[in-house]
Every structure is written in structure tokens, then in C-alpha cells.
Amino acid sequence: MSAPIDLELKKAFSELQVKMIDTQQKAKLADLQIDQLTRVQKLAKLTNAEISTLSDNTRLYEGVGRMFILQSKEDINNQLMDKQKTAEEKIKELEQKKVYLERSVKEAEDNIREMLLSRRTTAQS
């Protein structure tokens, strides 16, 4: 009777290990994406601050691929604000995803602990 219990525990541990590795990889990816979005957000903020110091009749160009397009100061300002807002929203989503991943791993660990405790109490009885 000991062998089926050991196989069951071994299977549960291997599933937990796979889940933890997968979750850690996803969390690292989320961290990298958050870092990248933070850089995009800072760049947009700094660019916006620099543009705001320019006079309204200054000609501003937006780089698109290998060419530059004449844009109004207001249009560029709106684009930069949109970039900041989009980056902020994505950062929030990624942070929520990370919390969910961490919670799911913790639940899986708790389930295995409960399984171990129930096996110990069954074995002692």
C-alpha cells in the first residue's frame, strides 16, 4: 500500500515542479515586459517635457521608419500622452498577472502540504 502513495506523491511533486518552473518563467517575462514598458513610459514623459519647452510655432517631425513627418506640437503631445497611458495600463495588467501566478503556485504548494499531512496522519493511524 505504500507504493501507490509514493507514486501519487511523486506525481504531485513533479506536477508542482513543472508548474513552479513555468510560473517562474512567466513571472520573469512579466518583469522584463514591465521594465520595458517603464522605459517607454519614461522616454515619452521626458520627450513630452522637452517638447513643452518649445514655442508653438516650432516645426516638429515624427520619425516613421526611415522618414520624418511634419506634425503639430499638439499631435505629438497627444501621441506621447497615449503612449504613457497605454504603457501604464499594460504595466497594471502585467502586475495583476504576476500576482495571479504567484497565488496559483502558493495554492499548489498548499495542496501538496495538505496531501503530505493527510498521508502522515493516515500512516500513523
TrEMBL record:
Pfam families in alphabetical order: Prefoldin_2
Record's signal peptide: none
Superkingdom: Eukaryota
Any one annotated GO CC term: cytoplasm
Record's keyword terms, sorted: Chaperone, Coiled coil
Molecular function as annotated in GO: protein folding chaperone; unfolded protein binding
Any coiled-coil regions, as ranges: 70-111
Annotated family: Belongs to the prefoldin subunit beta family.
Subunit structure, as described in the record: Heterohexamer of two PFD-alpha type and four PFD-beta type subunits.
UniProt function note: Binds specifically to cytosolic chaperonin (c-CPN) and transfers target proteins to it. Binds to nascent polypeptide chain and promotes folding in an environment in which there are many competing pathways for nonnative proteins.
Protein name in the entry: Prefoldin subunit 1
Gene: pfdn1
